[in-house]
Structure formats: structure tokens, C-alpha cells
Amino acid sequence: MRDVVTAAVILAAGGSQRMGRPKQLLQIGGRSLVRRAVEAAVGAGCAPPVVVVGARADEVAAELAGIDVEVVRNKAWEGGIGTSIRAGVAHVAALPHPPAAVMIMLCDQPLVDAAVLGRLLSAHAGAAGRPPVTAAQFDQTLGPPVIVDAALFPALLALQDDRGAKALWMERPKIVQRVACPEAAVDVDTPEEFERLLRTELRTGH
Predict the structure, then answer these.
(1) Is the bond preceding 96 in cis, omega lying within 30 degrees of 0?
(2) Which of 10, 136, 170, 190 is least surrounded by CB atoms within 10 angstroms?
(3) Sheet with strand 101-106: strands edge to edge
(4) In this predicted structure, what is the pLDDT of residue 203?
(5) Can you say how many angstroms the Cα of residue 76 is from the centroid of all Cα atoms in its chain?
(6) 114 Cβ partners below 8 Å, 6+ apart?
(7) What is the pLDDT of residue 20?
(8) DSSP-derived secondary structure for the chain
(9) Using an 8 Å Cβ cutoff, are 134 and 177 in contact?
(10) What is the mean pLDDT of each run of 10 residues along the chain (206 residues)?
(11) Residue 1: its pLDDT value, please?
(12) Domain 6-204, what fold?
């Protein structure tokens, strides 16, 4: 198995309009969503973990106190997810020792833990000749978390403001390998979804 150094870019810049309050700071099991995402990335061995902040930037950054994380402020966050991907990838690409790949994550997928990320990393670090993109497969779609090789960093940096990384392989399906990650299907966009998640957490203790 080939050792691939993978950074994590955790997107936490959104304004949470549908939630009505910053979902990055919502607490599940005593930890905020953004902190859980960072801890998952660290636990899976991603380095460095980079969090892209925008709306409520100071509050989100303060929530990460005590964790060895790099915070990138995206002043153009209102333009769309593409602006945050570009900001995070530009940061890791400019590091003295750029990573071989980047894991793009959302902060509102609370069931995506270190084990789920490890599943993706193991697949991506597999045999030679694998595709340059490894994406989570869930609910008959592909989405984050997704690992993208450094060779595609220029393409990520050229994303339109309102386009996510999925735009890269929609017309080139052969460049992506799919890894079953049903946990990624659970996200938190509305108060109702958050309440359902809390009720599930109370029942399962997770």
C-alpha cells in the first residue's frame, strides 16, 4: 500500500440560512459539529486539518481553541461553496510541503467519523493505477467527503464560485472511485433535521 499524505479541508463558512443559527456551532454529545469534523480528520491521520470559515468566522475559529488546526478566512464565502474550496486548496497547495491529496469535508455530516474517513483513505492509498478521486457513495449519489489528488488542485482552484468539487467528475466518471459511506447521507440543514439527530443520539448514545 502506498503512503499518501492527505490534508483535510473542512468547509465551515456557510451562513446556515435554513437552520436559522450557525450550524457549525450546534452541539451533539457535548461537541460542536465543526469540532467533531476536525477531530474526525485528525483521528483519521489527515494533516494538516484546515478549516475554512466565513459567516461568524470569529465564533467558529474560537470553537476550535486547543486543537492544532489551521483556520482560513474566506471573505468571499457568500459567493458559494466554490469560493471556500478554492480558499482551502490554495492554502494547502502553498504549504512548504504540499500534501499528495486533500480530503474535502463538510462540517454538517455528524456521522462521518474517523473510521469513515479511514475507509476512504485506505481506498485512495490502494494499488497503483487507481483513479485520482475517491468519493463517498450514498443515497445513489456521490459527494463529500471526497479525496482529490494534488494533480487536480489546479482544477479545484478553477471552480466557479457556486460549484462544488463534484463538477470535476460529473462529465469524467472514470476519474473517480466510489466507496460506500452511508453515514455521509446524514446532514444537518434544518432545525427539524437537527432535532431528529438529537433524538437518535439519545437513543443510541452516539
Answers:
(1) no
(2) 170
(3) 70-73, 49-53, 6-12, 101-106, 141-149, 133-138, 176-180
(4) 46
(5) 18
(6) 39, 40, 41, 42, 43, 44
(7) 62
(8) -----EEEEEEE----TTTSS-GGG-EETTEEHHHHHHHHHHHTT-SSEEEEEBTBHHHHHHHTTTS--EEEE-TTGGG-HHHHHHHHHHHHHTSSS--SEEEEEESS-TT--HHHHHHHHHHHTSSTT--SEEEEEETTEEEEEEEEEGGGHHHHHT--TT--GGGGTSS-GGGEEEEE-GGGG----SHHHHHHHHHHHHHH--
(9) yes
(10) 76 80 85 94 96 94 92 95 96 95 94 96 82 92 94 95 86 89 88 77 50
(11) 35
(12) Spore Coat Polysaccharide Biosynthesis Protein SpsA; Chain A (3.90.550)
- Residue the block writes with cell 437518535: 200
Which residue, chain included where needed, has cell 499524505?
A: 5
The owner of cell 450550524 is: 23
At residue 70, what is the residue type?
A: E
**Hunting for cell 459567493 — which residue is that?**
79
- Cell 475507509 identifies what position? 119
